[in-house]
Amino acid sequence: MATKHEQILVYIESLAVGEKISVRRIAKELQVSEGTAYRAIKEAETKRLVSTIERVGTVRIERKKKEDIERLTYAEIVNIVDGQVLGGRAGLHKYLNKFVIGAMQLEDMMRYTEAGNLLIVGNRYKAHEYGLRAGAAVLVTGGFEASDAVKKMADEFELPIISTSYDTFTVATMINRAIYDQLIKKEILLIEDILIPLEETAYLNLKEPISRYHTLNKETTHGGFPVVDNAKRLVGILTSRDVIGQSLAESIEKVMTKEPITVSTQTSVAAAGHRMIWEGIDLLPVSDDYGKLKGVISRQDVLKAIQTAQRQPQQGETIDDIIKSQLHQQLNDRLLLEFRVTPQMTNAYGSISHGAYTMVLTEAASAVLKTKNRKDSVLENLTVYFLKPVQLDSLILVRPCILDISRKSAKVEVEVSLDNETVGKAMLTFQLLDR
């Protein structure tokens, strides 16, 4: 039977898009405590089922598909620009497909403004009216108000008119940043992207005998299976190591490994892969917040997904991408990488940031390993034992050197120099993976 928390989430998902909800309403209609209702609404916000806006309340919004993640709702715009809704609250759940900056003559501006747009403009009252009539929502910058007639029109057309204290340029930058961040998130592979769902997953019940394990083993050739109770809650995992020497009639509950390592659907594939390698496991159960089994992933699934993702074109550059593009290999008998410190890689004092520096070290060490073997490598440990500040626009040389390499691991020392002076040294340990 579903918990009260789950029942609330199902109820919220059943609501019409654009409908307002509140803690008090949920508590009253579903006869739960306000604390339970509050926690469920917060989770619904995390799952992008609702959006909470200051001075407006919580509104049911359409859940985004991953391929449409670059589209924002007007409700999200309110949160991004710390805005105030002046009218048209009923349209906050709608998506915008383009924003138009109103920095031109009114007639020219309206040629570019159409339904589904967001018109960003200052205290130009005629532009507010024309934008709404064209089917666009309006974002008023500079903290200016809108006329009562325009507010009334916004309510009639169900198109939001929003006011923000930021200037037009800052607002455009903030919206662009939000879209860009979501595009990067889109490119990060999550467990939900590769999950083998519960309907296709072979699993065991803790009350079944070990003979059931052998039956599933013959049917699927898998070496391990998650174990659940009658409510489909994950309680353990059973592998070939657990059943060696055990009677076929013995209960699974007595021999299974309890409290197995699990991940959620929102865990990144890379993080799950690293954990599987470090823990030496081939099968990882996926559960929800209530411990219910959602499916499983295997090490092969993870490696295949990571290798496929590496061949896909990226939508946006992360700071890692920028750093990788700055590393230039010099052709010497020893691998030598050249790197220039750009503004994005500096801290508040104008020298290379710790994050950028460790990224340079890791990339250089990975590059030298690729010259010796064709295996993928995973960083296990990094120790920086010498570091001097490196200023903006400095051209540094990075010299990685393999100290030790075996079938499963490698140790690499990296030396960083500037103008023939050593400015950094580090030791990195990697695990090597068979492709």
Automatic annotation (TrEMBL):
**InterPro entries for the chain:** CBS_dom, CBS_dom_sf, Diverse_CBS-Domain, DRTGG, HotDog_dom_sf, Ser_kin/Pase_Hpr-like_N_sf, Thioestr_dom, WH-like_DNA-bd_sf
Iron as a keyword of this entry, yes or no, is no
Domain named CBS: residues: 256-314
Q: Reply yes or no: does the keyword Lipoprotein apply.
A: no
Keywords, comma-separated and alphabetical: CBS domain
Checking Pfam families in the record gives: 4HBT, CBS, DRTGG
Kindly list any coiled-coil regions of this protein. none
Q: What is this protein called?
A: CBS domain-containing protein
From the broadest rank down, the organism's phylogenetic lineage runs: Bacteria, Bacillati, Bacillota, Bacilli, Bacillales
